[in-house]
Amino acid sequence: MTETASSAATGTTGARKGLTINRVFSSEGVHPYDEIKWERRDVVQTNWKTGETVFEQRGVEFPDFWSVNASTIVTTKYFRGAVGTPERETGLKQLVDRVVKTYTKAGVEHGYFATPADAETFEHELTWLLVHQYFSFNSPVWFNVGTQSPQQVSACFILSVDDSMDSILNWYKEEGFIFKGGSGAGLNLSRIRSSKELLSSGGTASGPVSFMRGADASAGTIKSGGATRRAAKMVVLDVDHPDIEEFVETKWREEDKIRALRDAGFDMDLGGKDITSVQYQNANNSVRVTDEFMRAVEDGSEFGLRGRKTGEVIESVDARTLFRKISEAAWACADPGLQYDDTINDWHTNPETGRITASNPCSEYMSLDNSSCNLASLNLLKFLKDDDTFDAPLFAKAVELIITAMDISICFADFPTEAIGDTTRDYRQLGIGYANLGALLMAMGLGYDSDGGRAMAATITSLMTGTSYRRSAELADIVGPYAGYARNAEAHNRVMRKHQAANDEVRTFHIADADVHKLATEEWARVVELGKVNGFRNAQASVLAPTGTIGFMMDCDTTGIEPDFSLVKFKKLVGGGSMQIVNQTIPRALKKMGYDEEKIEAIVAYIAEHGHVVDAPGLKTEHYEVFDTAMGERSLKPMGHVKMMAACQPFLSGAISKTVNLPESATVEEIEDIYLQSWKLGLKATAIYRDNCKVGQPLSDGGGKAKKDAADALDAAAAVVEKVIEKVVYAPTRKRLPKSRQSRTTSFTVGGAEGYMISGAHDDGQLGEVFLKLGKQGSTLAGVMDAFSIAVSVGLQYGVPLETYVSKFTNLRFEPAGLTDDPDVRMSQSIMDYIFRRLALDYLSFDARSALGIYSAEERQRHLETGSYEPVEETGSASELIEDPAPSAGRVAPSASEARIETPEVEEAEIVIADKAPGVPQARTSAELLEQITGHAVDSPLCMTCGTKMRPAGSCYVCEGCGSTSGCS
Q1: Fewest CB atoms within 10 A around its CB: which of 30, 305, 506, 600?
Q2: Does some domain include residue 886?
Q3: C-alpha dihedral sign at 171, 172, 178, 184
Q4: Residue 75 domain-assigned (yes or no)
C-alpha cells in the first residue's frame, strides 16, 4: 500500500521526500463514506437495576452494518459536546473526521507525505479502515484528538519515584493528574529505602508500603470524586527489597479484613459505603523477580535482600519460602503478579538510557520511567478470507498505515507531565496490537490450546511487529530516527535480530500459517537490513492490550489475545430489548471442518440450550477443542493460557495484558507451577485469578453482605424447621395405583442397546410406576433394572416428585450412550438419561420441563423459528417478547424476523432466543447468560455505570452493556 519515495539504501537527508501512499482499501474518486449505507438510530441507555436513564441521544448516524451495541458505546463514550447543544457530535462521520483530519494535517506539517495527493489518500485509507471496523485507536484518541482539550493520545503511563520526600509527594500529584484524565499509571517503588534501613537523621525509614497507603487513598478519592470507574494503577517492588514480604502480604491481610467486616454486617461490596476503610484496593501489585531468584527457588537456596542505599545484603531468606508466600497471597487475593526482570530487559531496545523497572496497570506496556504509549488494535477477523485463510498481505498493508498514523500522533500530542512528554517524544514508543484472536482461531477450526492455534497466533504477531519495525525504519529515513536511537543503536539492532531468530524457530502446521510465516520472515529480513542503514523511528512498536471498549467499537467477539469468553452472547436489537445468540463464528467453524447444514443447525441448537459442545449431536470429539472457552463446561486449562502467551511473547516489543484464570479448587502448588513455567517459557509478566478468591466485589449471585444475609436466613429457617420436626412426626402415605390403570409402552435404542419401558399412571394422569426391560431374563443387568424400577415406582407412590427423579438422573454419563431412535431425544448420555428425559416429556407440564431444560423436537423447532419454545397461543407473538423500553416516535417493537433484518450480521441459524418469558430477567451480558445456562456464577464485578455484569478483558474487566472498563485502555 505504501512505499518510500526515497531510496532506503542511501539514508541521506537530501533524499528524504516523504511517503507515497497507494490505495488498497478505499476507491479512487469515491469517498469512503459514499460507499456505505447510513442509518439514524436512537441511543437510550438505562441502569437496568434502577430503571434510571443514564444517557439519551436520538437520531445518531451510523453505518447500517454496525451493531446497536457498537453504536451505543461509541455515542456514549466518544462523542464530544454537551448533549442537546449544537456542539454535540451526531454521527460517526464527525467523530472519525475529527480524528483522521487531525492526523493528516499533522502528517503534512511534519513532512510525512511526498505530495498533497498522498496525504489525501492516507486520509481516505485511514477513514475506510476505521468505519469498516478493521482497527481502532485507543480511547484517549477518541476522547481528545481534535477537541479543545489537551491532545492526549496515550492510555499507558509509567512514572518514577526516588528515595526522597519531594519525589514521593510529586508521585502522588502526577498520579492524580493521570487518574483525573481517565488513564492509568504504574511505577516501581524499589528505590525507596526499606523500613529496615536508617534515615540520614538516624531514624528508621517508613518503607515503600507505608507510602503506598497514601497513594492508594489518593487514587480512591480521585476516583470517587467524579470518575465512573476505578483508578487504574500498578505498583511494583523488586524481589530483593528488604520489605518484600510486607509488600506481598498487604492485600492478603486486607482481604481477611474485608471478610471480617462483611461478617460483622458492614457493606464491603465494590463501591459499598464501608469499603473505603480497606487499604491498597486501587492498585494491582506485582513483584519484579530476577533469574537469580528463580534459580534459587529451583535450587532451594538462600536469597539475599539488599539495602537500597548501599546495595549490600542486609538479610537472607529461603527463596522457596518467599516464593511460596507470593503464591499463597495470589491464591488468597489474586495479588501479587510476577514480572520477570531479566527477560524484560534482555528484550529492551534502550538499555543505555535506563533499565525497564515497571509497567502500566495492565502490564502490556513496559518501557523507560516517565514514558507513555499510545495504542491501536486491529480486528483480526476482518482479515479472514472467504476460503477461511488469513490474508497476510492485506494485514501487513493495514499495519504499515496504522503504525504511520500512530507515529504522527506523537508530533502533536500533549502529555500529563513534562518528563513524560520529553521521554515519549525522544523515544516515540508505540503499541500496535490486535483483538479477536479467539474468534479468528475458532473460525479457522483451530483450538486455542493447540499447536496449530499457537502457531497461527505466533506468525500473525510476528508479521505485525515485523511490518511495524520495517515501516519504522522507513520513517526514520524520511523524518529521522528517534532522538535516543544513536546511543542505543547497537542494543536496538540486537533486539531486532532476536525477534528475527525467534521467527525462524516457529514451526508451522498447515498452509495458512505457513503463508503468514513466509511473509513475516521477509519482513524481519527487511527490518534488519533497513535498520542498519536508517535506524528506527520508534523504540517500541507492539503490545497486546485488553481492547475493552474499542473491542466493542469494532464488534469483536473476543478481546486482545483472549479466547472466547463463552459460546453464547447477547445482542441488542434496534427497536430495544436484546436477543440471545450463539457465537456467530461457530457455524463458520463447523462448515470449515466439513459439517453439513443439517448437522450445523443441530449443533448450534444444542449449544443454545446447554452453552457448550459436550455431547452435541454429530460433533466429533476431536473437534471439541476448537470450541473451548475461558468459562463454562469446557474451559481452557490454565497452562493453555500460559502457552498461548509464550507463543506470542517473542514477537512483541512490550508484553501481554492477560490473566490466567483458575478454578476455585486450584491449589497453591498449581499457582507456583504457573509462575515457574511462565518464567521458563519466556513470558515478561504473569497474573493469576482464582475464582471467588475476592469478596470485596459484587457478584450477580448476591456477593458480600447479600450472601451472608441469605446464609443467615437459611440458618434461621433451618432452626425453625428443626423445632417443628420436634413436635410433628412426619409419616409418608403411599398412594397405590388402581387395579386397572392407564399405561404406556415405549421401545427405545440408546447407543445400539435396545430396551422397553412400561409406565403406569394414576387416574389423574400422574406417573405412578415404571418398569424397565433390558438384557436377557435372569441376567445381572435385567435384575438390576427390575430392582431400580421397583425402587423408583415405590418412591413415586410415596410422593417423591417426578421432577426430582428427572433432575437427579438426567445427564448421568455412562455406556451405552449416543444416538437414540427417539426424535425428541436425539442424543443421550446414558440409558438413565434417556429414560427420565422421555418420562419428563410424557408426564411433566411444559413449565416444569422448561425449568429442567427439556423440550420436544417440535418445541425446539418453534424456538428456532420464533425465538420461543412455547406455543404462540399460550404466550403471544414473538414481537411481544422483545421489549422496547424507549421506542422512537412512530416506531413499534420489531418482530423476531424484523430484528433479523435490522441486524444483518446475525444469521437465522445463530439466533437462539428473544427476551424470555415473563418473570425471567432480560439477558444483559454474556457473563449473565453463561450463569443462566450453566447455573454457575461468573466471578466478575458489576459495572458502576449501568449495573450489568462485566466480563474479563486481559487483566481488566469490561462491560458489554456500556463499554466501561476497569483498566487504563
Answers
A1: 30
A2: yes
A3: positive
A4: yes
Question: Alpha helices, DSSP H only, in 139-199?
Answer: 139-144, 165-180
pLDDT confidence tier of residue 859, bands split at 50, 70 and 90: confident
Label residue 431 left, alpha or beta by phi (over 0 means left) and psi (-120 to 50 means alpha): beta
pLDDT of 606 higher than 70: yes
Domain boundary among the residues 850, 873, 902 is at 902
- Cβ-based neighbours of 790, under 8 Å, separated by 6 or more: none
Interatomic CA distance for residues 941 and 925, integer angstroms: 12
Residue 366: phi and psi, rounded to 5, are: -130, 115
Q: Which of 285, 360, 370, 379 is catalytic?
A: 360
Is residue 411 annotated as part of the catalytic site, yes or no?
Answer: no
> Does residue 317 share a domain with residue 198?
yes
DSSP code of residue 434: E
Give yes or no: residues 296 and 341 share one domain: yes
**Looking at residues 886-909, what average pLDDT do you find?**
32
Catalytic residue of the set 89, 123, 364, 609 = 364
- Domain CATH for 332: 3.20.70.20
pLDDT band at 923 (very low <50, low <70, confident <90, very high): very low
The answer on 452 and 500 residing in a single domain is yes
The helix (run of H) or strand (run of E) holding residue 331 is helix 319-333
Note if 538 is an active site residue: no
Whole-model pTM: value is 0.76
The pLDDT assigned to 929 comes to 66
Together in a domain, 822 and 772? yes
**Cell 488469513 identifies what position?**
390
pLDDT digit string (tens) for 754-776?
Answer: 888 888 888 888 898 898 888 77
Report which secondary-structure segment, H or E, holds 912. Answer: strand 911-914
Supply 715's cell numbers.
Answer: 440458618
- Active-site residue, from 156, 333, 362, 693: 362
Using alpha carbons, select from 242, 243, 433, 238 the residue that is nearest to residue 345.
238
Q: Report which DSSP code applies to 895.
A: P
Looking at the fold, whether 827 and 879 belong to one and the same domain comes out as yes
If we measure between CA atoms, which residue out of 454, 414, 422 comes closest to residue 438? 454
More confident of the two residues 828 and 877:
828
Give yes or no: residues 182 and 106 share one domain: no
756 and 775 in a single domain? The answer is yes
Cell numbers given for 838: 422421555
The Cα–Cα gap between 357 and 237 comes to 9
Q: Which range has the worst mean pLDDT, 306-320, 363-377, 503-517, 781-795?
A: 781-795
Q: What is the DSSP string of 813-840?
A: --SS-EEEEETTEEEESSHHHHHHHHHH
Please choose, from the candidates 360, 948, 437, 420, the residue with its C-alpha nearest in 3D space to the C-alpha of residue 654. 360
d(CA 130, CA 773): 65
| Alpha carbon distance 53, 643 (integer Å) | 44
Domain-located, residue 30: yes
- Phi/psi for 693 (5° steps) reads -80, -20
Among candidate residues 498, 529, 551, the one where a domain is terminated: 551
DSSP state of 193: P
pLDDT at 580 over 80: no
Residue labelled with grid coordinates 502448588: 669
The burial of 621, by beta-carbon neighbours within 10 Å (0-12 exposed, 13-18 middle, 19 or more buried), is given as exposed
Task: Count how many domains the chain has.
Answer: 3
Q: Which residue has the higher pLDDT, 180 or 899?
A: 180
**CA 684, chain centre distance (Å):** 19
Claim to verify: residue 189 and residue 310 sit in the same structural domain = yes
Q: Print the domain residue range for 490.
A: 2-153+358-551
User: How distant is the alpha carbon of residue 234 from its chain centre?
Assistant: 19
Let me know: does 943 contact 949? Beta carbons within 8 Å.
yes
pLDDT digits (tens, 9 = 90+) for 353-402: 999 999 999 999 999 999 999 999 999 999 999 999 999 999 999 999 99
Query: Looking at the domain assignment, is residue 710 inside a domain?
Result: no
